[in-house]
Here is the input.
Amino acid sequence: MDFFQNILFAIIQGASELFPISSVAHGVFTPYLFGWSLSPEFLKEHFLPYVVMLHLGTCMALLVYFHADWLRMLRDLFQGRINKELLLVVSGTVPPCILGLLFEKPLRHIFSNVTSAAVFLIVNAGLLFLGERLRGRGSRRLQDVGVGQAFLIGCMQSLALVPGFSRSGASLVGGFWAGLSHAEAVRFSMLLATPVILGATVLEAPRLFHADVAGLFMQSLAGGMVAAVTAFISVTVMVRWFKRHEVDAMWPFSLYCLVMGTTVLAARMLG
Here is the structure.
């Protein structure tokens, strides 16, 4: 990847990671739509570690935005107090971590499949729309959610292992089904994303560093900085949007996923 491709990809990554529109699908679509001639070896072996390094920038943005929540949880932990929200985050993190370790290798080989990403993005559109409509308006706070419900929300988040499904979208729908208000659902979704992204980075960064394809490790670090800025803007917009819309907050994202997925799928079929 050249400098321009790296920066553009990082901007798209940072913008799409936290909105419920599947950043991985957009990562697959970007080279295809812009006609980038990336090698099959890069797409199959190095694309996922590269994207994960960009995710690290997203994680930094989340840590900065929700620093008060994390400091409160860590303070209680070191002082020996039980923090309910920390327990919920741990419970919700377990499913994607276990499933990611079990299915990382077979899933790695579908990350370059544009058609499957388009199909699952269309399915994601239906999940977002129906997930909110079937539940309606919730009023519970995160403190009211049980550990078992947090685990189920984590299971929903695991859908994002398949390109086309959105991590934030799936966990938001899970939060709606648990009765959380839209504002609390988006906060829990963002808190859940942080340890998952950190864990993925720990696993994938060494592979990228040792491979160092044409300086890709340094490129990914620069891209991560750009993704961090874009992600901070995205999470700010996301939180404000869901605070103001307790119903029908998902329909713009659902419509976007439907249009994007259908457009890419049609282009693949006709091209």
